[in-house]
């Protein structure tokens, strides 16, 4: 009996061993396989992964071809999102589906996100060796509904650059028709490339340096290159368009560019646009790409991001040799730029520029007009002698006797009145000798009313009050008129002057009364002084209208209306009987004025005139002149009587 039991046991064990040795291997776990395939999709290393295909396509090569354009634009992420349960068939095969999540972050805030499904099959065991899972390959593994032969492409959709507008919403800078002029090397024999560049430079009236640069760039460019020389307005009369078009090898390409009404209109303020430099591209953190037109200077550069808007992105699929329109898979709409609003009055700015052009000053010059009610800068023109520099808003010069408006306020606050008697000698010594200007009227010397000394701009009378009015008093009086404050509401680069409050020598303190020593101002600052007097309260100038400038706090100046009224009275005397009488005689609407001259750089005499007409404060400045009355005066007259 024991032998029978033992035999049965041996037989069962043998059968079990035979089953174990001959059984079909189990189906491998599917989750690790799905994870590994996701990793392969992320790297593109698909060569060693088991796949099934319906064609002879090589998955790794198709992967590279489909994604080539996208991978030049951004990196991407792909991850396993989920898998379905494994379905086993009676014949030992099995299948499951894996879903992969893709994300292409084209910007910080926008990404093209989608999922694709991949079918995995298990063909069964190979004898006693376990089989391997295989992924069913098709183009749709890479992008939704992608077809064989299609390639993905990413396009940048450019937004429209916004306008710069002036007072009343009048357009200043907008897209205008232009011609890009240059040498097309493919249109002329190689032996004529340099000669063509020189001919073009001559037609464009280039100087020697610009000519040599164009020739050098032409020689260095490729055999079929277009070498840009200049961008001109279609309507620009300064260029012989017919001659340009008839010159062999010269090409004119039509297009548009954000431009002001004329080439010179407020150019130092508005700035220019052009193709982005390498430095701009690097500093933009991806916002700007090669070939983009951006602001290069002035407000165009300062507000470039607002004006430029946000590019859109479009992902398409198309067959490489197909004629069909690309199929859009995803898009982010471009956001057009937002306009920049300025307070500039277009007609007044043009008039100011024309007045300066007619004056023909060789040295830097400027006209600035500020609205006393709003603080809006209505005009800020810099003359041709400024050579493109924004003298109107950034110039730093001693204001000379125009500063006597602030000195007078300091004296009024220390007890003087227009009728107070002051001494106006020919000379006075306070740390050094001070004189009156050449030609100062003899009948205004001696003990005279303060209004007379102010009207005729008596230096010695003002310096004589150095003990009555401290340097801090002068600083505070100037600040009450907007001089020396931060240009916090301007919205652009601007300088409102500087008046030291202390740590100053006796001679410099005395010189401060007549706007010299360490006192500095810009034409913008002195127009602000005149506007403050006109409006009866401290003006903080505004050029760019923003929420901050519209809602910003008024300056902390302490100018009172009764003080401003007295200053207007004193400035009125300058026009009625004083140093501005001849220049502004007969000009209607003038409330008052003040002339000035100062020792400037390189021995030049900086000349000034400020005036009030209605509720507008105006400053005229010329870096190298004779007197405020004779050099700046006629310019002021032309500005106030025209436009």
From TrEMBL:
Keywords: Antibiotic resistance, Hydrolase, Membrane, Signal
Localization in the cell: Membrane
Superkingdom to which the source organism belongs: Bacteria
EC number: 3.5.2.6
A Pfam family annotated for this UniProt entry: Transpeptidase
Predominant localisation class: membrane
Recorded catalytic activity of this chain's protein: a beta-lactam + H2O = a substituted beta-amino acid
Domain Penicillin-binding protein dimerisation: 157-323
Residue ranges annotated for the Penicillin-binding protein transpeptidase domain, each copy included: 366-640
Family membership: Belongs to the class-D beta-lactamase family.
Protein name, as recorded: Beta-lactamase
Organism: Myceligenerans salitolerans
């Amino acid at each position: 009996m024991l032998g029978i039991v033992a035999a049965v046991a041996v037989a069962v064990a043998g059968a079990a061993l035979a089953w174990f040795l001959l059984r079909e291997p189990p189906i491998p776990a599917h989750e690790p396989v799905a994870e590994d395939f996701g990793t392969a999709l992320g790297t593109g290393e698909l060569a060693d992964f088991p796949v099934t295909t319906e064609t002879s396509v090589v998955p790794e090569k198709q992967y590279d071809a489909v994604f080539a354009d996208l991978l030049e634009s951004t990196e991407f992420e792909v991850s396993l999102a989920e898998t379905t349960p494994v379905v086993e068939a009676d014949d030992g095969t099995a299948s499951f589906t894996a879903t992969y999540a893709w994300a292409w972050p084209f910007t910080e805030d926008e990404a093209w996100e989608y999922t694709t499904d991949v079918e995995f099959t298990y063909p069964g065991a190979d004898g006693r060796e376990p089989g391997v899972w295989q992924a069913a390959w098709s183009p749709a593994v890479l992008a939704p509904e992608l077809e064989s032969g299609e390639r993905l492409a990413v396009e940048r959709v450019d937004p429209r650059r916004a306008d710069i507008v002036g007072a009343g919403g009048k357009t200043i800078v907008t897209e205008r028709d232009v011609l890009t002029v240059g040498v097309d090397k493919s249109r002329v024999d190689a032996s004529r490339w340099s000669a063509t560049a020189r001919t073009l430079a001559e037609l464009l009236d280039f100087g020697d340096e610009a000519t040599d640069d164009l020739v050098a760039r032409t020689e260095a460019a490729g055999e079929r290159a277009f070498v840009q020389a200049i961008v001109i307005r279609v309507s620009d009369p300064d260029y012989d368009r017919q001659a340009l078009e008839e010159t062999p090898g010269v090409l004119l390409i039509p297009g548009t560019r954000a431009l002001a009404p004329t080439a010179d209109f407020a150019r130092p303020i508005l700035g220019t646009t052009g193709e982005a430099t390498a430095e701009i591209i690097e500093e933009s953190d991806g916002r700007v790409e090669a070939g983009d037109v951006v602001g290069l200077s002035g407000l165009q550069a300062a507000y470039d991001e607002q004006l430029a808007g946000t590019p859109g992105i479009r992902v398409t699929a198309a067959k490489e040799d197909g004629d069909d329109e690309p199929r859009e898979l995803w898009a982010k709409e471009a956001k057009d730029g937002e306009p920049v609003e300025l307070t500039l009055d277009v007609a007044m700015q043009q008039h100011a520029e024309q007045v300066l052009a007619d004056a023909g000053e060789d040295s830097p010059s400027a006209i600035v007009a500020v609205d006393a009610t709003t603080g809006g800068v209505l005009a800020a023109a810099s003359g041709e002698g400024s050579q493109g520099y924004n003298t109107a808003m950034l110039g730093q010069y001693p204001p000379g006797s125009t500063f006597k408006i602030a000195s007078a306020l300091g004296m009024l606050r220390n007890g003087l009145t227009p009728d107070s008697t002051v001494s106006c000698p020919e000379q006075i010594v306070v740390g050094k000798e001070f004189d009156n200007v050449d030609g100062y009227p003899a009948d205004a010397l001696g003990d005279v009313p303060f209004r007379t000394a102010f009207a005729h701009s008596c230096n010695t009378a003002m310096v004589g009050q150095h003990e009555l009015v401290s340097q801090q008093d002068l600083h505070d009086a100037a600040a009450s008129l907007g001089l020396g404050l931060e240009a916090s509401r301007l919205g652009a680069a601007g300088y409102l002057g500087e008046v030291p409050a202390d740590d100053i020598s006796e001679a410099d303190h005395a010189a401060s009364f007549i706007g010299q020593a360490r006192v500095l101002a810009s034409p913008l600052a002195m127009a602000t002084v005149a506007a403050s007097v006109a409006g009866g309260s401290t003006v903080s100038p505004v050029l760019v209208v923003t929420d901050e400038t519209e809602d910003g706090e008024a300056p902390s100046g302490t100018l009172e209306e009764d003080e401003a009224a007295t200053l207007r009275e004193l400035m009125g005397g300058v026009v009625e009987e004083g140093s501005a009488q001849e220049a502004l005689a007969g000009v209607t609407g003038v409330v008052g004025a003040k002339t000035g001259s100062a020792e400037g750089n390189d021995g030049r005499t900086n000349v000034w005139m400020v005036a009030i007409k209605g509720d507008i404060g105006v400053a005229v400045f010329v870096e190298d002149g004779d007197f405020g009355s004779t050099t700046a005066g006629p310019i002021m007259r032309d500005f106030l009587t025209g436009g």
